[in-house]
Amino acid sequence: MQPVDGRQAKARTARPIAPRDAQRIEQFLHELAETSNVAAAAAVAGLPVNRIYRLRRTDPDFARQWYAALAEGYDNLEMELLHHLRSGETPGDGTPPRKFDTAIALRCLTAHRESVAREKGRRTLADEVATIASINAKIDDMRARSKAGDAAVRKARRDAAKARGNG
User: Fold this and answer.
1) How far apart are CA 71 and CA 138, in angstroms?
2) Is the distance from CB of 45 to CB of 76 less than 8 angstroms?
3) Over the stretch 128-141, which tens digit does the pLDDT of each residue have?
4) Where are the domains of the chain?
5) Which residues contact 44 (CB under 8 A, 6 or more apart)?
6) Spans of biased composition, class Basic and acidic residues (predicted)?
7) Pairing with 122, which of 24, 74, 95, 164 sits 20 to 30 Å away (CA)?
């Protein structure tokens, strides 16, 4: 996209992740899975939100991790909502109960249903691809052993025929 005044737009790329930032990125992904809140997760990790979004746009591996963390976060929210609806309380670890807004939780789950389904589809597809590759490798191994067995049987028959002819 070109600026209105005709200047050339600079291609924006994320800076490479410095080793010191790798831990903060991991912390961000962990918090994102816990909260499903990008701004809150970035704040906890001490990272600027704009840098996180830029990194998602420019780093496909980070984008995959981002969507996986969000899908996990929405799975967690769904479980918390079910617990709340069934028991009337929020799941806790001995801390004072926190406010739980069922309507907002339902709206969040509904709003992100597509992206979560897409991520689950990617995971399922990756699992299926790995399973098919494993099955194909086993079939190839079985074919190779069968071929070797057939060759051994043919050799044994030839050797037996030679032995009868010479004997």
Assistant:
1) 33
2) no
3) 777 888 888 899 98
4) 116-167
5) 27, 28, 31
6) 158-167
7) 24
